[in-house]
Amino acid sequence: MFYTTPGSEFPLPLGTRQSGERAWRWMELGVKAPYYFVTGRSSTDEGWTVQRHFWFCELAPLKELACAAVGSGSFQMERVDIFSPGFLNQTGAYRLDRVKEIWQSTEHSSNLRILLVNGEEMVLNVTGIDEPDHSESFELVLSI
Predict the structure, then answer these.
(1) Which residues in the chain land under pLDDT 50?
(2) What secondary structure, in 3-state letters, does 58-70 show?
(3) Which of 23, 72, 124, 133 is the most interior residue, by most CB within 10 Å?
(4) Rounded distance, CA 44 to CA 42, Å?
(5) How far apart are alpha carbons 42 and 69 in whole angstroms?
(6) What are the angstrom distances between the C-alpha of 107 and each of 64, 71, 77, 88, 138?
(7) How many CA atoms lie within 13 A of 90 on its CB side?
(8) b vs e for 23-60, b when ≥16 Cβ sit within 10 Å of the residue's Cβ?
(9) Are 90 and 114 in contact (CB under 8 A)?
(10) Which candidate, 35, 52, 33, places its Cα nearest to that of 43?
(11) What confidence tens digit (pLDDT) does each residue in 19-30 have?
């Protein structure tokens, strides 16, 4: 979730936007939560290839995009990064890291284990339990 104002919006040229798309010069993050930053490539009917970037604050639409990209001739997902708040990455500040895998709890779908390319693991535990439940089972939902 993010906030912005009408004064921060800037017009997109008609030829570069799809119906309903809008752009802003700045935005304010409304919730201290992880955001997934997806980089991919789209191919146009005219043979152009365009690099595209998407922000997701929830896992479900990211999984939908990944599933749609499999076998798609028009969109290819190149990488996923996580823009994580300090409580998740243990630094006290936001940080951007490349994701290797995302594992989701089979019991609490909001609980995640995120394996980074650099070997670090981030654990998002929103069930209110201070210590991770090591008996909780996780399934792989995204592998880049």
Answers:
(1) none
(2) CHHHHHHHHHHHC
(3) 124
(4) 7
(5) 10
(6) 20, 30, 28, 20, 8
(7) 5
(8) eeeeeeeeeebbbbbbebeeeeeeeeeeeeeeebbebe
(9) no
(10) 52
(11) 677 788 888 888
pLDDT given for residue 115 in this prediction: 97
Residues 100/116, Cβ–Cβ less than 8 Å: yes
The 8-class DSSP code of residue 125 comes to -
Q: Which residues of 64-93 are buried (b: 16+ CB within 10 A; e: fewer)?
A: ebbeebeeeeeeebeebbbbbbeebbeeee
- What span, in angstroms and rounded, lies between the C-alpha atoms of 47 and 24? 28
pLDDT tens figures, 47-70: 788 898 999 989 999 999 888 888
pTM for the model stands at 0.81
- 51-to-7, 39, 41, 46, 55 alpha-carbon distances in Å: 27, 7, 4, 15, 14
Which residues fall within 8 angstroms of residue 136, CB to CB, at 6 or more apart? 105, 106, 107, 108, 111
Q: Which string of DSSP letters, residue by residue, matches 21-69?
A: --EES--EE-S---EEEEEEEEE-TTS-EEEEEEEESSHHHHHHHHHHH
